[in-house]
Design brief:
- The radius of gyration is 31 Å and the shape is globular.
- Among the domains are: 163 residues, no CATH class; 77 residues, no CATH class; 178 residues, P-loop containing nucleotide triphosphate hydrolases (Rossmann fold), CATH 3.40.50.
- The two termini are 48 Å apart.
- The protein has 730 residues and is α/β, with parallel strands linked by helices.
- Helix 24 links the parallel strand 21 and strand 22.
- Helix 12 packs parallel to helix 18.
Length: 730
Amino acid sequence: MEDNFQSAYQEEEDRLNGALTEIDSVLEKLRATPVYTGHDYTEQALEASRDQRRKDLAKLRQEPYFGRLDFQGSDEDGRKALYIGKIGVDREQVSDRPLVIDWRAPVASLFYSFTGGTEPASYDAPDGLIEGLVYLKRNVVIRKQILERVADTFNRESDAPAVSDEFLVYRLGENKDNRLRDIVSTIQEEQDKIIRAAKNTALIIQGVAGSGKTTVALHRLAYLLYQYKEQVLAERMIIFAPNRMFLDYISDVLPELGVGNIMQSTFPDWASNVLGLTLAHQDAAETLNRWFEASGALPEITDETPGRFKGSTLLMEIIESSVKLLEDSAVPEGDFSPWEGAVLRRATILHWHNEEYSPYPPAKRKERVMARIHRWIEMELKKCSSASILKDRKKMGAQREKAYSSKWPKYVPLTIYKQIFRAVKTPEDWSAEPPAIIPASVLKETRGDLKKGNLREEDLPPLLYIHYLLFGNDDVIKFDHIVIDEAQDFSPFQIAVLDLFVRGHSFTILGDLSQGIHAYKGVHAWEEMQSLFAPEHTAYHSLTRSYRSTMEIIDFANGILSAGVGSPLLAVPVFRSGNPVRLIPYREGSAEEGRMEDITSALKMLSTREYRTVAVLTRSLKDAEELHARLTEYFDDINLIDGSMTEYKGGLSVLPLYLSKGLEFDAVIVADADLKHYGDTAWDAKLMYVGCTRALHELWLLQGGKLPTYLESAALAVETATGWPVEEAR
């Protein structure tokens, strides 16, 4: 077996050297080609293509490919060795196969879908289904032009066992830095199906913690750009992430895949830009404070909770009927007369408004009717017999035109929204009472906010919908595809509004209901989103395999969900073992000084190991701020993550547990994992589940008293370690 490995390694090293020579030759010729700086459009396009190839090849020469697949089609004479990489490259000389095949190409799908066996394999090609035999599937690791690893995951001509899990575990076991990385070399079959799914579908993905949801969605964007290059543009794609720091965290994945110019935003930032709001929406910190920082029991979450109600489609119906009322009574009563003797009948204006300009939305219809009236005035002015009469009528006409325009409804989304909640005076033909369907608590809170000039995040979808009903979406980018991350924290209203700004219901909607710690605004079941689309326009996928954490951490986290939530959405861990989860009582009980010393000791121990990222998770932001202040006495470079950051710096971090969602760390310390800080509720259990599943390799829970029931149950269900490691010396 050793001889076989040496032979395979030597074969791949020779092939790598040859590939690098060919890449360098092509790159040298491209760099020697003079850069075109003229104004000819065709030459500019050719230069742009050459420039992109220069960049691609420069990146490719560091890591040309990651996989090899030997395949023989049923209608071919011999098998071909196909090398698969992030970017496809043709050979300098005509050949029956490229130097490197792009991972998104149809034949490359075999590298991900083929899992072994002697039966024929197949893939979908533009010309139809291609069948054949796979003889070899090989993973290679190349870094900085050096071949580091060769692993055969299938060899039809060898009796040696496949090592697909071994290679995956090897890649997963690598420590993380401050950026999410691509998984193009380790995409699994169930992930590949999602990545290659049809474009015009609202794809909903339920994925357990660590299942690679975010990374899969980013790879899907790269695939759609490759597969539908004539139909989609990167500039017309957008990723909605939970916060700006998370956008920074994922910012390297698409460039690594050779994709640029895809928009990345939070929903509030995008919505505020579309609405042109000069009134800043209320800081999200206030909402977080209400739900995560306040002492005492969590307020009950029902369909009448403000975020849940204003995120429902019930409010859409109220908005539609309110705008329809304005539209139906838009044309003022009475005829229009710019001066004595000139009359434009209301019937004529109504005909323009209700017939000729009916395809336009209300605000644009008003613009066209008023422009038509203005042209009618100009035509009437041409009938004047003297300059003095013309001057007087022009002045009077302008005044009356302005007065007439002021009688029309004010098509301002914020004003209409305030009118719906009776925060300002309503039109005369509206009922004095607000819509009965609005719960009293929602009405009171929203009216109070609007009168103070405050807008919450939950107010943005209604405002966007009003804006759409009034103005349409011609002045806003119509997206080719939308990715929504942490979608369990989105409302149905948000999705319904975004569907107005995307072609063909083309969504990738991903999240995890088990991490639904923002249930006061998000969905409680995926059916709430699926019901927004016709069955033929939506699909659902479930990712149950977790690639992030060790078996010990995943099994412990599953125990939390089972005991605390009763959730069936449990993760299946990859066979990667590590240290047991460690439960550590504070040695000085709950005394504050002892607590601080123990947390400091725990961080010192974990920070001396070969970890790049270690986090201390606290129950509240106040706790994180106080702890960070103390820890800066012992650690020169430790970051406080408080929700206002736009960049994740890696290294050592302190943050409230509720801000950790979406991030991952080599090691995690959950401080104060006791009943004093976490209640025995399903919501607290989800919160703890989020915190525990941030850890890749090591998880410690420190507590100063009795554990919540779900932690006790989890500790009994799996093997855990209690107390400090033996190497600890304090």
